[in-house]
Structures are given as C-alpha cells and as structure tokens.
Amino acid sequence: MAILVDTSVLGRLANRADVAHWVARNAIAELHRRGETLHLAPQNLVEFRNFATRPVKVNGLGLTASAADGLGKSFEAAFSLLAETPDIYPAWKSFLSGRLASSVSKFMTPGSWRSATPTGCRTC
User: What is the pLDDT of residues 83-100, one digit of tens each?
Assistant: First the structure.
C-alpha cells in the first residue's frame, strides 16, 4: 500500500525531545518492515522547513535553515518524493467539495451553517 507521510510525523522524527518521537520512529520502521511504500509530497517538505525553522517559543524546532535543509534531504532519501503536477489542486478541490457536500447534507439543513458560525465572523 502507498502511504503519504504527514508533516507532523516528519516533525516528530526530527525532534527527539518530542514525546511522540519514538512512536513515529517505530511506526515508520514497522511500515518499512511490512514493505509499505512511504511517500512525501513537496508540500510536506515546505511545511516541514517552515516548522523546523520557526522559533521554539512559537511551536517550532528553532533550527537553522541549513539544519532544516539537511533533515529535508534525509527525508527525501528515506521516502519516495511524489511529483507535483498542476492537476493535483483541482482534483483535491473536487474531492473535497464532494466530501464536504456529502458531510454537510447529513448534518445540516440549508442555511443552518449560519447559526453554527462563530460570533463576529465577517466572512461567514
């Protein structure tokens, strides 16, 4: 089975102080052992670099750009990097709108979303 590794997993792998570091590491090792194909998308690496270079006091790793890039390269070596094509975003939007419409129709009547929006929301 093909599995997309989430950015949060990359963050936990990179941070040995994270309480979930070993959970993430063992999960990846088990998936490799089972012969699963683990993938990254370019967006994962963009998000990881942003997280990794963000200061610790604002929920980042506080790494230098060079250190973050080094970890990114190690992730690219460990996981297959998926190609990004212009078709991805429209396909995702189509998928999401179909799922959202299905979910909303199960739980909300037309117009009821307005009563469910946060107070003071100007765009809702």
Answer: 888 887 787 788 777 765
As a whole number of angstroms, the distance between CA 9 and CA 21 comes to 8
Predicted local confidence at residue 70, as pLDDT: 96
pTM above 0.90, yes or no: no
Q: Hey, which residues does 113 pair with through a beta bridge?
A: none
Going by pLDDT thresholds of 50, 70 and 90, the confidence category of residue 25 is very high
In the three-class reduction of DSSP (H, G, I as helix; E, B as strand; rest coil), residue 108 is classed as: coil
What the block records as the tokens of 97 is 């709108």
Report d(CA 116, CA 1) in Å as an integer. 38
Sequence ranges of the domains in the chain: 2-81
Helix then strand then coil, in percent of the chain rounded to 5, is 60, 5, 30
